[in-house]
Design brief:
Number of strands: 9
Strand content: 15-25%
Oligomer: single chain
Low-confidence stretches: none
Mean pLDDT: 91
Order of helices and strands: EHEHHEHEEHEEHEHHEHHH
Shape: globular
Largest sheet: 9 strands, mixed
Structural class: alpha/beta
Number of helices: 11
Length: 265
C-alpha cells in the first residue's frame, strides 16, 4: 500500500491568540488527515503558549517560540522544522476550507510536473464588511509575467513540495512585505504551477492595519523597491510601457490600502 503523503501546515503567529485558534481548528478539521501543524510564535507577548497547552499536550501541534524576526523568518523556521513531503502555509488570521488540502494533494498527484498548487481566496474587509473572491491566474504563466504581478495568490493559498526550498531557497527575510510574491517569482522561473479553481481560503483585512503581520503602505513601498532591485537585470530589458504596467499594479495596491484606511476615519 502506498504511503500517504505527509503535509506540514506552518502557522506563524504574533499576539493573535483569538484568531490563531480558528486557524488551527481549520487545519484540524481538514478532510485530509495526514497533517502536522507547526505553530511558530514570532516573539509574541500574549498568552499564546498558555492557551495552546491543550493542543500541545494532545500532540495536535508542534509549538516553537523565537525572538521577533518577522513573518518570513517565522515561516522559514517552520520549514526547517517540518517533516512533511509537502508544505502549506496559513497565516494566523486566515482559515482554510475543510477540503483545501485534500483537493490540492490530489491535484499535485495528478500533475507530477507541477511543484506547487494554489487556489482561490475570499478577501474580507472587516471594517467595511465588503468581500470578494480572487482566483489565481496562472494559465500560460511565465517568469516575465510574474515580474509584473503576483498571479499565484497569497501564501495561505499554496501547497508546495518540500524539496523546493533546498533548490530555490527560503522566504527572503530582508523583505518587510511581499515575501510571498518574491518566492512565487522564483518558483515561476524554473517550475510549473497548478491550481484548484475554487475559493478555499478566507483572508482578513483588519480594521487596524497594524494587525496584519506585514502591513502598512510604507512596508510595501520598501518591499517593491527591494524586489525591483533584486530582479533589476531582468526589468532593464523591458520597455518603458511595460514597466508602466508594473507601476500601475503597484499603485492600485497602494490605493486599496489607502481607501481601506480612509474609510475607517
Amino acid at each position: 500500500m502506498k504511503r500517504e503523503l505527509l503535509v506540514s501546515a506552518i502557522i506563524p503567529t504574533y499576539n493573535r491568540i483569538d484568531l490563531l485558534k480558528d486557524a488551527i481548528n481549520s487545519v484540524l478539521n481538514q478532510t485530509y488527515k495526514n497533517i502536522e501543524i507547526i505553530v511558530v510564535n514570532d516573539g509574541g507577548s500574549d498568552r499564546t503558549e498558555e492557551v495552546l497547552q491543550s493542543y500541545i499536550r494532545q500532540n495536535k501541534i508542534k509549538y516553537i517560540y523565537q525572538n521577533n524576526k518577522g513573518l518570513s523568518a517565522a515561516r522559514n523556521t517552520g520549514i526547517k522544522n517540518a517533516k512533511g513531503d509537502l508544505i502549506a502555509f496559513l497565516d494566523d488570521d486566515d482559515t482554510w476550507d475543510e477540503i483545501k488540502i485534500q483537493l490540492q494533494v490530489k491535484k499535485l498527484k495528478n500533475n507530477q510536473d507541477a511543484i506547487m498548487c494554489t487556489c482561490g481566496v475570499k478577501i474580507n474587509y472587516l471594517y467595511t464588511k465588503m468581500s470578494y473572491n480572487n482566483y489565481p491566474n496562472i494559465e500560460d504563466i511565465t517568469f516575465d509575467k510574474m515580474l509584473f504581478r503576483n498571479y499565484m495568490g497569497i501564501s495561505s493559498c499554496i501547497l508546495v513540495w518540500a524539496k523546493i526550498f533546498n533548490e530555490i531557497g527560503y522566504y527572503d527575510e530582508t523583505l518587510p512585505a511581499r515575501e510571498d510574491y518574491d518566492f512565487h517569482i522564483r518558483i515561476s522561473k524554473h517550475y510549473k504551477v497548478t491550481y484548484v479553481n475554487k475559493v478555499l481560503v478566507n483572508y482578513l483585512i483588519h480594521e487596524n492595519p497594524n494587525k496584519q503581520m506585514n502591513s502598512g503602505i510604507e512596508r510595501f513601498k520598501i518591499a517593491n523597491k527591494l524586489i525591483y532591485n533584486k530582479y533589476n537585470k531582468y526589468y532593464k530589458n523591458f520597455t518603458k510601457e511595460l514597466l508602466n504596467i508594473r507601476l500601475s499594479t503597484i499603485y492600485f495596491q497602494y490605493s486599496t490600502i489607502c481607501i481601506n484606511n480612509q474609510l475607517k476615519k
